[in-house]
Amino acid sequence: MSAAREPLRRALIVGAGQVGVLAAVAIKRASPATDVLVVGTPLDPVAFADHIGTALPFTNRLHDRLGIDEEVLVRRAGASHRLAIRYVGWAGAGSVGLTAYGGAVDPKLNSAFAREWGGGAHRAASGAPAGSVGAALAEAGRFMPPSGDAPSPLAEVDYALRWNAPAYRDLLIGIAAQLGVRHHPGPVSAVQPMLDGGIAAIQLAGGDAVAADLFIDASGTAALLSATQPDRRWIDWRGALPARSLAVGRPDAPRLDLADRVAFTDAGWCWEQAGRDGVTRFLAVPGEVSDAAVETALGAPPADRFPIDAGRQDQPWTGNVVAIGDAAARFEPLAGVALDLAHRQIDLLLDLFPGRAIDPRERAEYNRRFALMADGTRDWIASHYAAPAAAHRLAALDRSPALDRMLDQFARRQRLPITEEATVSTSEWAALLHALGVPARRSALSLAEGDDPGRRAAAALDHKIAAALDAAPPYGAWIAHMLRDLSPNSSP
Amino acid sequence: MSEGGKIRVVVLGGGTAGWMSASALAKLLGPRIAVTLIESEDIGIVGVGEATLPHIRGFVERLGIDEADFMRATHATYKLGIDFRDFGRIGESYIHPFGTFGEKVAGVPFHHYWLELAARGMAGPIGDYSLAVEAAKANRFAPPAEDDSLRSTYGYAYQFDATLFGPYLRDFALPLGVTRIEGLVTEVLQDAESGDVTALKLADGREVAGDIFVDCSGFRSLMLGATLGEDWEDWSHWLPCDRAAAMPTAHVDREIAPYTTAVAMPAGWRWRIPLQHRMGNGYVFASAFVSEDEACEAIRAAAAGDRLAEPRVLRFRPGRRKQSWSRNVVGVGLASGFLEPLESTSLYLAQIAITYLIELFPADGRIDDRDRDEFNRLIDMEYDRIRDFLILHYHATVRDDAPFWDHVRTMAVPDTLQRKLELWREAGRVELYSEGLFYDASWIAVYMGQGVLPERHDPRAAIPDPERMRGAMDALKAAIAGEVAAMPGHRAYLTARAERLAAAP
Asked: How many structural domains comprise chain A?
């Protein structure tokens, strides 16, 4: 008869950024009897997953599971909602395409007819009709998160959160402390690896060696623990992802906006993250772009500039060491993808939660699924460069067979093959490619169906949009309402 | 291209796969294509797939066919799963349901909690916690709910007379404009340069020209195999059964089981599939271990009910063509591959091939290599995943009572299956995938049902108080029992909806 595995006695997390602390919360929640210790490491400014305060919709589910309340993020961590991304200049100068999160987009709306004629308000400003409820709400600046109890026209709308990264981290630290997670300021002075892989203990500055059953390496690009592991192999992604550095602008004045803007410029993509604490521009600069061009794209000299060595670990889990976040994969941090992948790794670890003895097959399954997720993220970013303006501007990039197949199938019939463990749904991916202005022909099936299904889908969407606009207050009013009863005496 | 600029599609074969292909193509691509189907009364059809998977409902719905009409025409009954007997060990049985067992709690799949309680002697059989299993055992049926309730935790398929399904679809397809040609194909004409098939020549001298050819000629695989010579990947070392002796009998019970039964036999297994007016029976066997005569005698002896016909023997080879789409020929059904009907996958495989053909159909009639590659990639994946699942049913056994079972118990299995088995045995985890057939609940059903229990399970399953867990599991069991009690009997459900019933023979 099967026996429960002996639980982890101690899990040790190296790295106290927003990735490491959330990992600690996740492990402590899963296994309250486990002694969970977070050890601080010197700040790694290049660890995008630790510094950029946003992720993707997946994170909302993880937060729910870990008891991290969205309302608290809004009240105490400056959180705001991103429903959509506005792609500017990707199809050519002046082009605009808006795409929202959520997998509920009716594929019939992807027909040329529906895109040209269907789908909600035909705004003169952008010329592009909304392809989804989320996009229409973002355009109108109206939204409030649905409560989840009563059926709501907003229930289908998916969104990502943005937040103030230091405030979010403080909030996580508070939760971790409440759960009994211990903290040591670090740094790690030495690592005692085991001969056949894994780590026996780490030496803390001015203290004793600390042993643990499981080590989480959330130390950022240094990968302090992973670096000690034998047979470590790094998979280079630089052929597929052109940016070699990330230039970050000085924050502008705060702005509430339900959409972020991602422009394609001569100096690479420029993501403008709106937010209640300021608007930040991130520019992913390919090699051989002049400083002057970077400055032009950002509108000012960058406040910071970080190298990007795109790639991932072949096996992020070796022995009893699991690398997560920038210790496991590095890439252009486009609109939340960096933290999204880190959070998926934490979720995967919960799925395959180990006992005191690490099972090599379970570890192999983790590494298999991580590879699919990470490669999916790489392909998601790389697919942006299939946009006409990017393809025109940049030299041909390497494409994985999966991405090659997807882009080919999309171009010839708007079909998106399923990608296992993909971080976005096929309909979201199709919506992205449309927003980027990637040309696509109609399939035999769509031609045979004619324009009626698209017309009907567009009419149905119009109804949904009208209902959603009716149900949603102006977003600013909702935020104000949320903050109104926030006073020093009524902390939530 | 002729016929008013329409792409000419020629389907060869008037069996189930042929008429499924013709009707779906005509229904969904009708305005763009002209479909011709060639069949011959001189060639019998195999009529495999009396039992189906829930996917068939999607096919019927997509065609816009009314369920009651379809059920009446094919003498269909409802199916909630398969009852496997004597597979893991003689005397043991389990139901592989179209449904789940319990649900995740705190991110940990139900079966880990079940393992924890079972180890303490505090849990009933895992089937107790599956509504589909309990409803099947009670011979009850009601359609699932479309919400998040307990009643939404299962699906259903049909058990029907496969020899009636093809003709039913023929009547459906002909008004859609499908041209039916009666004739025997004597020659496959090819373009001298490209090797593409250009026309099929009939015995009476007629030539039927086309742009795309769908090979539904069954095991003969006239175009894909015989003409184009597509290589065959043989899997008989893993799946040794290569014959079936099929024999219908009359019902013995008044009740109709809402499930198919698969009983392990000395050299294979036998099916029992309840239709409206009769029972389908058949012995799937390995000819290396038992002769055809012996097998026929065995099914005569084993099948309950009055014999309605003598056993009919079918021969097959497990495996698939290395390419199911070659040049301008697409194989659908047995012409492209065969996996024995242990998990009722035959019609599913035909359906999925048709689905992908329609998805990848060339808008201008010119086939692109990349679409062929994509079709073949997808079909291979489907076959390979089903193959591993089928092998598990044979390999996961302690039976040593017959040379056949000694063979399958001790044989080397594919690496892909070995990896899955080890992950399950060591950690109680199911390798996750989201494309193709058979997800975690199916794997868990067969692993558990055939006695492959993990050695260890998730440490989190030991955290809650066992008495409280027992309380929760008992509550689930009681809720399931309540739902089952509220369902009508399967026959009663059918009788109350008489538009689904064929006239008694």
From this structure: 1
